[in-house]
Amino acid sequence: MNNFVNRIIRAARLEPQLYEEVEADKTAMSQAMGVVVLSSIAAGIGNTGRIGLGGIFMGTMAALMAWYIWAFLTYLVGTKLLPEPQTKADIGEMLRTIGFSSSAGLIRIFGFLPVIGPLVFFASSIWMLIAMAIAVRQALDYKSMGRAVGVCVIGWLIQVAALMLIFSLFFRFSGGPRL
Q1: Cβ-count burial of 77 within 10 angstroms (0-12 exposed, 13-18 middle, 19+ buried)?
Q2: How far apart are CA 3 and CA 7, in angstroms?
Q3: Burial of 159 (0-12, 13-18, 19+ CB in 10 A)
Q4: What is the C-alpha to C-alpha distance for residues 60 and 77, in angstroms, rounded to an integer?
Q5: Range of the domain at 90
Q6: Neighbouring C-beta atoms of residue 176, cutoff 10 Å
Q7: Does residue 167 lie within any of the structural domains?
Q8: DSSP run (H or E) holding 75
């Protein structure tokens, strides 16, 4: 347990060596998933006034799906579209590093606080994006942070487009509102 907490703190501190460590540690997959779950629960608690307690469960399930989809898309873009000569990675490495990049999301538990709640969510989002760029750079063995940011942006755009399509089809076939 102490190792897990230590890794969460080091990931939140944006330590590149931590991301190298979890990239290489094939046994860290459950820890990476734990970070994603804890971060989504923290966000749910921080948003309880807006989403209710039931939203925490749904948010956690959505976060786990989004984590996998994001890691898969980032893996494809980073290894197939924009690799550097030394790039070598597998999907497990991406899942582990990107999972730990969610560590800063734990502060979202304070999102319920009046006035500063929205600031907490905004700050944690920026913090997690920076952590993700570091995680991607380390997992894909990039020399360039700019390339890692580019891979994150491209993966995000693809994910948003896919989610919009999925939600559009879901609402069309369920009789719900049309997007």
Answers
A1: buried
A2: 6
A3: middle
A4: 25
A5: 2-174
A6: 10
A7: yes
A8: helix 48-76
